[in-house]
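Memo to structure team: turn this sequence into structure tokens by end of day. - J.P.
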Amino acid sequence: MAERLFTATRKGPFEFRRGADGWAVVNTAFLGSPVSMALCDPRDGALYAALDLGHFGVKLHRSNDGGDSWSEIATPSYAGVDSAAEEPPSLALIWALEAGGANEPGVLWAGTIPGGLFRSEDHGASWSLNRPLWDDPRRKLWMGGGYDQPGIHSISIDPRDSRRLAIAVSSGGVWETQDGGTSWRQGGQGLRAAYVPPEQAFQPETQDVHRLVRCLSEPDHYWIQHHNGVFRATAGIGQWTELSPPHSTFGFAAAVHPQDPRTAWFAPAVKDEFRYPADGKLLVARTRDGGASFDLLRKGLPQEHAYDLVYRHGLVVDESGERLAMGSTTGGLWISEDAGDNWTAARARLPPIYAVRFA
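Reply from structure team:
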């Protein structure tokens, strides 16, 4: 099981380690600075933190010594990208950050707002925009979801072949490449958008996918937390089945068991303008049978006046499939050691949490 956990928060990244007394903070950095995304590269142990500094722009930092020291590196850039819009594109947020395949040392992928996918081949020292996706005429149909502009928030590398990637866009559906980004195809048949006119509900470009995850041992099995539902695919991103979880179909976060594609977790909430746990009770929905049924897991989670929202990257499972972490917009952080049956609050009062990552 993973013994280290990193949280990206509104006031910096915090590293937790598991000890005899549970999980405790052992390291901090950039205190006071919003960190939109963190990455723990499993290939070389490097840490990455993406800072969202508002007026001062987006910054990216790397640590090669476990977080004791950090160096600023390059950020993805839209400089020189032609645009027909009144304002040329500019980097607003790094919303996804993933390591390339095991056979690609130094390769990183970044998903950004306004909807660009970037690749680095030198540990983040330089970045290049994936032009085939950016120039695809279908991208012009993308639209903002939670933000004014569309953004790529989920990047999934196929463990069998690092040239095969799947991404999810809010709002713009699901896409994949099988040749490292030279060409792209859009999937998403069966995804349904309840917030558009009925005749547009099944159009792939209208889908506001909140999170896309895949099972590592069965890489053609995917789960989606959509704006208005939970969906599952068992043969790639082409065809999806809509499921009917109890309690709520809205949420942002999703996690899938690394060895069992039928087991997945979600953090449901009341949707649209409300966005808080139903009845003020925080819970996790888990299925172990591919979505035929769901367990509502509450033990150890606050069940009175709890208004914690869990963002897209706020729920994660480690390589064992038993240890989970969940962080909320009110700074709550909970750990489960038994696949979600029981949860324990971390001994820290954190700022709002944007992402949690095991290392």
